[in-house]
C-alpha cells in the first residue's frame, strides 16, 4: 500500500528539496505540483515522482492535482494573493478527503501582532485548523539558500552583498533541514496538531556570514549595510511591488533588532541529526559565490 503526497510549489527552493527527499522513501508516491511543466521537467527523472501542472486559479487543474492524494505539503508563492491561493488549496484538499496537510509557514507566525509576513501565514494556519483536516505547521527561520539564490550575483561580480540588517543576528536554516523535518512530519507519527519552529544551530550577523563565505571561497566578501530609505528606493526602481518592498523591509528591520536570533533544537528532535551549520552550507554551495 502506497501513500500519495502532493507537494505544491514543487519547483521552489523548499518544494524541490521536499520532492527529492520524499522520492527515495519506499511506499511513497510523490505528485509534484508545478506552475509550468517545462520548469518541472527535471523532477520527472526522480523515482516515483509524477509532475502535474497546477494553476491556483483553475479549479479543474486543482481537482486533477488533488485526485487520490493522501497528504499535502502546502507551499504557496510569495505574492499579493497568497492567502487566497492557500485557502483555495485547502478547500480542494477538503473536497479530496486529504488526511494531513503539512504547511510551510514562517517563524513567529503565532506572534501578536507580529510582522505582516507572519500575519498572512497565521490567517492560513487558522483556515487549515478550521477546515478540520489534520495539520502540522513548519515555521522556519530565514533560509541559508537566500544567499545563494539572491546575493550570489553581487558576491560574484563585486565581492559584496547588500541588506538593511545592521549588526542583527539571525538563526538561518538550510532548506535541506526544513525538507527533512517536513518529510518526518508527513511520514512519521504524532505530528498532527503540532507547530514546529525550525532554525539553524547558530545565529550570525551578515558580517559573520561574509567572513565565512570569504574563508570558504578564498576571496574577500563584504557585507554592506544599506540604509532603509536607500534600500526601498532601489527595490522600487527595480519594479518590485510596494507591498513586497514594505514586507521585506519590515522583515529586515526585525532582523536588525535581533527578533529572530534564538535557536531551537527542533531539527535534531525531528530528524535525529543536527541541522547544517552555515559553514557547511557555504562549503556545499561554494560554486555559487565564486
TrEMBL record:
Domain NmrA-like positions: 2-262
SUPFAM superfamilies, alphabetized: NAD(P)-binding Rossmann-fold domains
Entries under InterPro entries matching the protein: Ergot_Alk_Oxidoreductase, NAD(P)-bd_dom_sf, NmrA-like
CDD domains: TMR_SDR_a (cd05269)
Protein name: SDR family oxidoreductase
Source organism of this protein record: Pontibacter saemangeumensis
